[in-house]
């Protein structure tokens, strides 16, 4: 019988492979508010709508102008003179009929001032092309309602992206490089018993060349430690000698090695014995965080982190719970399955211990022991090595002179790889000050290039003073370039910044992958990017 996948599973097949069914469910439950309807906003929404969010609401009162037709592919000539939010909402809705769409014909600034409660109904707010002062007000509203805020901006050939929320806890960081935790340096009794049950000397040739490399490494470690004062190999000479010892165990035919692939695997994977995975620094920071001193209102993440901490410093003996997964190895089916069962049982026992700690902690703070599900505990334990916490200061704190003068920007301006991007970051703040006093952005009027450049230099000087850097640190060429940009929101930049924004939204909604920890500046003039953590 052929099993036909459900329509949604077929539709989202590729992304399900990235963030799984649980991540897709989180997306399909998320309602996003987007402030602005320019190309940056619509490019971000295009990706989110195709990804299958529950719905979106666009807030904007702009009318479609001729310039919009050249910078926004979701607008057509028939849209001229119409409300831009309505036009792009209608076309975005056609991309995925399963996504609810709506718009509010009001200026974002007006909505922020007159109806702050509006934002509480969303899982995330994406603010595009907005000024610093309005964003500070929105930031305070979103933090009060515990709604993540993501800011995206395209200004000429400069892109800006920044999240603002108290903290983002990540269970599935999905790092690029993962070292399997086989616990070869510290085998538990059942694993050692299984290794001891296999006799290399009496095994027949077929069995001998199918013994999993994990068992070979365990036996090698056992013999090496017996001959070297219970110490595993430390230096390159000892490691080479260890591999040579493994090689000597291979069987030969008339003095010629029999070509046992499992021994080759053992020698190439010996580093898993020499350098076993330790607790990552990011995970250790989670375990030592003040938030692990839980209270009745503590989020589930921190209750689980506190339980994990108890396990690590208790039954775990300084180690994280075993994940239980093992890589492919040359082996017979029977031996591989037995090894797999041994690891799985240990992982289940560790998870049960963390569950017991979790329930005890929940009881101690007056919550039901069942208020955190077994599935949630299992997922947390399985990803214990991938836990991360990212915290963000408020926009107001970032702009405050006392924080700005802590030296981060001075260091960035002095660094060869970050100086240009740091200059552009400061200039984005300067153009907002220009707009606040002049009622428009620099370069938006014909014939005002020199005058606007002079005024922008003055605004740049005030930003530099607040930041504790000399105004001369930002070259005049970049000031002039910002004026020439004329606050243009170009489609090529909107596509890049909007694409990055959509990616960050998905990280926040699914709680998978680590979000950008600070302010991202993308410089399309040099094809570089840099993240500033204030």
TrEMBL record:
Which Gene Ontology terms of cellular component type are present?
cytoplasm
UniProt-listed InterPro entries: APP-BP1, ThiF/MoeB/HesA, ThiF_NAD_FAD-bd, Ubiquitin-activating_enz
Q: Which GO terms describe its molecular function?
A: NEDD8 activating enzyme activity
| Entry keywords, A to Z | Ubl conjugation pathway
Q: Which residues form the THIF-type NAD/FAD binding fold domain?
A: 12-521
Is the keyword Metal-binding assigned to this protein?
A: no
Q: One of this protein's Pfam families, by short name?
A: ThiF
Give the pathway annotation: Protein modification; protein neddylation
Tell me which Gene Ontology terms the entry assigns under biological process. protein neddylation
Q: Which family does it belong to?
A: Belongs to the ubiquitin-activating E1 family. ULA1 subfamily.
Q: Which PANTHER family match?
A: NEDD8-ACTIVATING ENZYME E1 REGULATORY SUBUNIT, UBIQUITIN-ACTIVATING ENZYME E1
What does the function comment of this entry state? Regulatory subunit of the dimeric E1 enzyme. E1 activates RUB1/NEDD8 by first adenylating its C-terminal glycine residue with ATP, thereafter linking this residue to the side chain of the catalytic cysteine, yielding a RUB1-ECR1 thioester and free AMP. E1 finally transfers RUB1 to the catalytic cysteine of RCE1.
What is the protein's name according to its record?
NEDD8-activating enzyme E1 regulatory subunit
Q: What is the lineage of its organism?
A: Eukaryota, Viridiplantae, Chlorophyta, core chlorophytes, Trebouxiophyceae
């Amino acid at each position: 019988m052929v099993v036909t996948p459900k329509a949604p599973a077929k539709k989202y097949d590729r992304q399900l492979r990235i963030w799984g069914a649980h991540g897709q469910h989180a997306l399909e439950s998320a309602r996003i508010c987007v402030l602005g309807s320019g190309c940056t906003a619509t490019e971000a929404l295009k990706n989110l709508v195709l990804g299958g969010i529950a719905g979106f609401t666009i807030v904007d009162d702009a009318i479609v102008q001729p310039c919009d037709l050249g910078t926004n592919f979701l607008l057509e000539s028939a849209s001229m003179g119409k409300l831009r939010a309505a036009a792009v909402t209608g076309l975005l809705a056609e991309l995925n009929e399963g996504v609810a769409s709506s718009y509010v014909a009001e200026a974002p600034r007006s909505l922020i001032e007159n109806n702050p409660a509006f934002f509480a109904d969303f899982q995330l707010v994406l603010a595009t092309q907005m000024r610093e002062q309005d964003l500070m007000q929105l930031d305070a509203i979103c933090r009060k309602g515990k709604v993540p805020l993501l800011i995206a901006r395209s200004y000429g050939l400069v892109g800006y992206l920044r999240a603002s929320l108290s903290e983002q806890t990540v269970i599935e960081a999905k790092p690029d490089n993962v070292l399997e935790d086989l616990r070869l340096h510290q085998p538990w009794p059942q694993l050692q018993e299984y290794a001891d049950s296999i006799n290399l000397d009496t095994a027949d040739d077929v069995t001998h060349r199918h013994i999993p490399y994990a068992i070979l490494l365990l036996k090698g470690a056992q013999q090496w430690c017996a001959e070297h004062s219970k110490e595993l190999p430390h230096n390159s000479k000892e490691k080479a000698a260890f591999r040579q010892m493994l090689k000597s165990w291979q069987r030969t035919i008339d003095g010629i090695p029999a070509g046992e692939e499992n021994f080759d695997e053992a020698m190439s994977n010996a580093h898993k014995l020499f350098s076993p995975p330790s607790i990552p620094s990011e995970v250790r920071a989670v375990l030592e965080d003040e938030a692990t001193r839980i209270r009745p209102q503590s989020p589930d993440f921190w209750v689980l982190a506190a339980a994990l901490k108890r396990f690590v410093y208790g039954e775990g003996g300084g180690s994280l719970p075993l994940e239980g997964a093992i890589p492919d190895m040359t082996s017979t089916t029977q031996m591989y399955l037995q090894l797999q069962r041994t690891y799985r049982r240990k992982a289940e026992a560790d998870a049960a211990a963390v569950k017991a700690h979790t329930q005890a902690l929940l009881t101690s703070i007056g919550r039901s022991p069942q208020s955190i599900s077994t599935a949630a505990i299992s997922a947390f334990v399985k990803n214990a090595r991938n836990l991360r916490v990212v915290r963000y200061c408020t926009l107001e704190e970032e702009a405050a002179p006392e924080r700005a003068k802590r030296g981060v920007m001075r260091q960035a301006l002095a660094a060869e790889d970050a100086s240009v991007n740091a200059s552009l970051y400061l200039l984005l703040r300067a153009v907002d000050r220009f707009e606040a006093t002049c009622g428009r952005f620099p370069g938006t009027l014909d014939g005002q290039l020199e005058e606007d450049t002079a005024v922008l230099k003055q605004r740049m000087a005030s930003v530099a003073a607040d930041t504790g850097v000399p105004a001369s640190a930002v070259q005049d060429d970049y000031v002039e370039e910002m004026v020439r940009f004329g606050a243009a929101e170009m489609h090529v930049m909107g596509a890049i910044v909007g694409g990055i924004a959509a990616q960050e939204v998905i990280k926040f909604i699914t709680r998978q992958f680590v979000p950008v920890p600070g302010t991202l500046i993308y410089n399309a003039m040099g094809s570089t990017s840099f993240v500033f953590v204030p």
